[in-house]
Amino acid sequence: MGLQRQLKGLWRLNQRMNQWRAMRAIKEALRVAYPFILVMALIDFVGQSFLADSGFFFQIYHVGTWLPGLETWRELFQAVSTVVNGVVAVMIAFTTGHYLARTYRSDALAIGVMSALAFLTLNVNYQALGQTDRGGDQLTQFVEGNLGPQGIFLAIVVGLTVGWAGSRLMQMLRKLQLRHPKWQLSWTGRVAWPLVLVLLITTGLGYGLSWISAGGLNGLVYQGLSTLVMNPGHRGLMILGVTALNNSLWWLGLIGPVSLAGNSSVTSLQNLAYAVQHGSGWGAPNPITLHTLGDAYANFGGAGMTLALLIAIWIGSRQTSYRRVANQTFLPNLVNLNEPTLLGLPILFNPILLIPFVLAPAVNIVVAWFALTWKLVPPIVYPVPRTTPGPLIAYLGTGGDWRALVLSGICLVLSVLVYLPFVRLLNNQGGDHDAA
Amino acid sequence: MRRNWWRWLLLVVMIVVIFVPSVAWMHRRVAKYKTVYRTPLDPTILIPGSSASQNRFDDLITELRKETKVTHSVLKVKVAENGQLSYTGSIRKGDNQPFIVIAFDNNRDGYRNINKQAAWLNIAFKDLVKTYHFNHFSALGHSNGGLIWTLFLEKYFAQTSRVNIDRLMTIATPYNMESASTTKWTDMLNELVKYREKLPAKLTVYSVAGTENYSSDGTVPANSVNQGKYVFQNHVAHYTQITVTGDQTTHSDLPQNKQIVLLIRQYLLQESIPAKERAKQTVNRRSLNGDPDLP
Description:
Helices cover about 70% and strands about 0% of the residues of chain A. By secondary structure, chain A is mainly alpha-helical.
């Protein structure tokens, strides 16, 4: 009963948040950006898992040996992927600003472009500006990494701020004009003056930040997070905390700090060394790490066990849009590329989905921690490609231990069970309750 | 109902299509890791020449320790005639480039003794691999120590198939024993040439000779050292001959000769030695005129 009441409270919170102009702007912005991101993700799915040297399918199907013109294929896919993936955040800055301006009945297109430009100025590579053309290794004009998925949070913030401030400025100018009919200002002027002001502020901000961190504002946030996340030590609680924090950040649109990159860390190498000499991972020197817990058992589909979310949607959701997104993003999720699911449902800024998004991986980490400490399964020791389907990571990483496969199955089922009540709760959206 | 059946079939097909090849891939990868994996522990195993004990290289090791930033720990192994091993010293935990000196109770010269010593080396080597789990190493042999290494590599090394040798440096090793002749081959050289096909194909060999005059270092004839080419050339990956002249080039001085220490650091331990230091060494050599006490 208590749970029921809490779920109801959560639902009310969700409804109230959906009334907020900012929340609606974010949702709308993500809805518009979703098709582009979906296409990008499907292209990345092929590019990263079938064509890249380190891709999972590339390796298991020996794509390199039978596909003619491999290099050409790679370049083509990379070109498309770079174009869309590289500017996702700019797109979102535009759509957020655009939608917010529309709610203020301001000039939506102009404000949208203004937010995109403001976001770009925050990510100008100021170190590159001073350099003269000497050839050789030229720095790029923008901090390119920040324009991709990892810039989404900043893009939303900029979009909201500029969307609000720009609309207000344009309205003020219009009012001013009404009051002083002699002082005429064209449409151009009404757009140009706010733009100049906004750009002045963001350029100042960006330039100031470039003194602190080379990567701009995003770089600063990421630096702080990465150092925290890179060294969670061996203790289970720390790993739990770091993963939960990381997943909450993904929910905010800060996509990136932790990824399945633990293969090369010192502890993993020590484990590998041990396994190579002893034939298996039993008794490896570092059984409890972010890699052996999080990457192996709490990352199916990417951060937040989104693969389990998709299954929960297939089982329990009556929302057509959810089921559609689940079908569309299944393949990218299979190889741990879950950005389209995050932005498509969306999970981002969705208060109901935040809970299982953080909880499901946490449950898995606890279960895996017990299994590893009680020596029910060996830790994963062999490196696996980033794009390995989630439930297979532990099995392949232990060198084929069936107990790890069973544990992966248990983790998947548990996560689906964690997601299900929340997915069912979302069935109410747009239904009778919404109307009330 | 029909639709459901179709979905389950799709699921099964997907699992088979992904699972089966990935398991095959995994087994290949695990096997590959086992073959190409190199342990961080990368010892340098040193064998002294005849009539020398396990302490023969102390001067050299002091010299090497002085000039390297990381101090290498030293383990000494003595093999008795019945194959019993006695250890002194230890490999410090975390030291991945230790020195291991292997010496023999019966350290006498002669074709038959050296063959026996190669067999004893095999016993000690297997025990070291079993204890310390390294799967690659570098070797240094002074004088007959180089012969023991070569015999060992040709006749016994295949027994420890999981271990690879990266580099071998022999210092004043008389491949043709005491003979200065370029045409007459002793039993030793005949045997070494006979089994040379068995030498590890990826091995890199450096043969360093010292000469006091134009023909010998006082003990070993330069021609005998040169005969090493018949053993190694075209049977290992690289074979390099180096001749060092100047002071401290008598046979027994060679392991602590400054030039040779530098060669050991550069080629055997693969340290990166700054150009400045290399230049300094040469200058010192010229100005000191053989007085080692001057700074």
